[in-house]
Specification:
By secondary structure, the chain is of the alpha/beta class. It contains 17 helices and twelve strands. Strand 2, helix 4 and strand 3 form a beta-alpha-beta unit. Helix 8 runs parallel beside helix 10 and helix 15 packs across helix 16. GO terms for molecular function: beta-amylase activity.
């Protein structure tokens, strides 16, 4: 997940964002993509700023506030309070979809990327603890009311983590879908689509992780017996967020390989929810690493190991990864390169120029050895993605669902030559090497969607001394997906409710010259979202996204329509609020 200096904020606390600001120096940034990038077309709104201006010196932008019609509505206040309640009595609700809901009930398009001008459907990410450790749905009343409110806002659907550690917790091959059955049926009743995330990682230890959900007990037992099943750094520190990809094809989990376990889980999900696939469940996002992202756990926050904006550390020191490295070195005729990874790459919280391997001049990353190691390390990640996607494609073929993979938006030190944090995460992206095109090409081979984070961030909002450049990074990724002809989807890395972030998302959603993003997932449903000003901003944002880049209407007109829509759907949201009070 992409991070900034405010990354410690919990996703469910409802705490307002406070952002440190600065300006990214352009002197060392890789900006070839921006040189040929088209600015957003003028017909998006009455006022527009050139996106390239973000590279220039400018003060931080304060969040703008849309016009306030009245004080906070009672119905949203109740929904907000109810959503924050820890315990709700179980209720059974029968819902009729209203005409106002039908207005925004278009099917999630099955053809991949959107043709420019068709608009971008918005999904909203559910709380991490939507399903409890006892496999029941948390806060049913509040969830029901909240989903109806989202539908009234024009949201296309929701995204939810389907936790391996909950569903297959106690015994291999025994799946308990209880809470997810309830949630998906509730989404269906409200006419909402679902992006289901196959979450094969641990929850806890990453930015925004407000709960702890470990891997299945039986998998944890095997990792205790053989600690090399965990990712390992050069100091012997183990990371138990996700099983090391070095043992992907070895029967280390009670007779099954990790990839077989993931495939069996996805197959069980397909069989249990086959009546909803392609209609309610429209996308399967396949988790491939920590935080569900295709990457190595190179910047773990747990126990203060890593802090933003450190460069992280390579995770190739378990015996399975080292065996692969040794084999690659011998195949290259350099067996001496196979005994260890780089020993001069610093530690988690160093900066590039603190290390011999990542420094600008004469750094090991830009040597023959560096090229060998980084090629091997990044290829291990690509091969991991290939193996899991091959299974996923076979399992969900002809089911009517899309398959997607999330890639982390590692934007800090992007302006340096070595791009050290990207390298330690497994993305071989430097001043001289494109690390995202190979990922896009791998996804294209399987017809998968490239889901990318940090879409809401602006360069000048980030610390200038760390040479953060999220806008340039997003542009590079958009170019890679365009070249590989793979659909691009996005999500925000941190909770944001201000107009400035919404405007940035709107601009980024149409960076591709020919096509818009196929979908955007908004992080995250929580009490703060339902506060009066935030709710108005959100409804306006959703409408603008659905209007699309080619909408030939004044921005103020769209905002007036959004305000009107908030007003006319008030009875629908009030109905949900009444249910919350009983």
């Amino acid at each position: 997940m992409a991070l900034s200096m405010t990354h410690q904020i919990g996703a469910l606390t409802g705490t307002p964002i406070t952002t440190e600001t600065g300006t990214v120096s352009d002197s060392t940034a890789t900006v070839n993509a921006s040189a040929v990038w088209k600015s957003p077309t003028a017909n998006l709104s009455c006022k527009i700023q050139n996106t390239d201006m973000a590279d220039a010196l400018s003060p931080p932008i304060s969040p703008c506030r849309s016009p306030v019609l009245n004080n906070m509505r009672a119905d949203l206040s109740v929904a907000c309070r109810a959503f924050a309640t820890d315990a709700e009595e179980e209720t059974t609700t029968t819902t009729t979809i209203t005409e106002s809901e039908k207005e925004y009930g278009q099917m999630y398009k099955q053809g991949g990327a959107q043709v420019k001008g068709n608009g971008v459907p918005v999904f909203v990410m559910m709380p991490l603890d939507t399903v409890s450790m006892s496999n029941t749905m948390n806060r049913k009343k509040a969830m029901d009311a909240s989903l109806r409110a989202l539908k009234s806002a024009g949201v296309e659907g929701i995204m939810v983590d389907v936790w391996w550690g909950l569903v297959e917790r106690d015994q291999p091959g025994h799946y308990n879908w209880g809470g997810y059955n309830e949630l998906l049926e509730m989404a269906k009743r409200h006419g909402l689509k679902v992006q289901a995330v196959m979450s094969f990682h641990q929850c806890g230890g990453n930015v925004g992780d407000s709960v702890t959900i470990p891997l299945p007990k039986w998998a944890g037992e095997e990792m205790e017996k053989d600690e090399d099943l965990a990712y390992t750094d050069q100091w012997g520190r183990r990371n138990y967020e996700y099983i090391s990809l070095g043992c992907d094809s070895l029967p280390v989990l009670k007779g099954r390989t990790p990839v077989q376990c993931y495939a069996d889980f996805m197959r069980a999900f397909r069989d249990n929810f086959k009546h909803l696939l392609g209609d309610t469940v429209v996308e399967i996002q396949v988790g491939m690493g920590p935080a569900g992202e295709l990457r190595f756990p190179s910047y773990p926050e747990l126990n203060g190991t890593w802090k933003f904006p450190g460069i992280g550390a390579f995770q190739c020191y378990d015996k399975y990864m080292l065996a692969s490295l040794q084999a690659a070195a011998e195949a290259a005729g350099k067996p001496e390169w196979g005994s260890t990874g780089p020993t001069d790459a610093g530690n988690y919280n160093n900066w590039p120029e603190d290390t011999n391997f990542f420094r600008k001049e004469g750094g090991g990353w830009n040597t023959t050895y560096g090229e060998f190691f980084l090629t091997w390390y990044s290829q291990m990640l690509l091969d991991h993605g290939e193996r899991i996607l091959t299974s996923a494609k076979s399992i969900f073929e002809s089911s009517g669902v899309k398959i997607s993979v999330k890639v982390a938006g590692i934007h800090w030190h992007y302006g340096t030559r070595s791009h050290a944090p990207e390298l330690t995460a497994g993305y071989y992206n430097t001043r001289f090497h494109d690390g995202y095109l190979p990922i896009a090409q791998m996804l294209a081979r399987h017809g998968a969607i490239f889901n990318f984070t940090c879409i809401e961030m602006r360069d000048h909002e980030q610390p200038q001394d760390a040479l953060c450049a999220p806008e340039k990074l997003v542009k590079q990724v958009a170019l890679a997906t365009q070249a590989a002809q793979v659909p691009l989807a996005g999500e925000n890395a941190l909770p944001r409710y201000d107009e400035s972030a919404h405007e940035q998302i709107l601009q980024a959603s149409s960076l591709n010259v020919d096509r818009e993003m196929c979908a955007f997932t908004y992080l995250r449903m929580n009490p703060t979202l339902f506060q009066d000003d935030n709710w108005r901003q959100f409804v306006s944002f959703v409408k603008k996204m659905k209007e699309g880049k080619g909408a030939e209407r004044c921005r103020e007109e769209v905002e007036r329509e959004a305000e009107h829509f908030v007003h006319v759907t008030q009875p629908l949201v009030k109905e949900a609020a009444v249910a919350l009070m009983h």
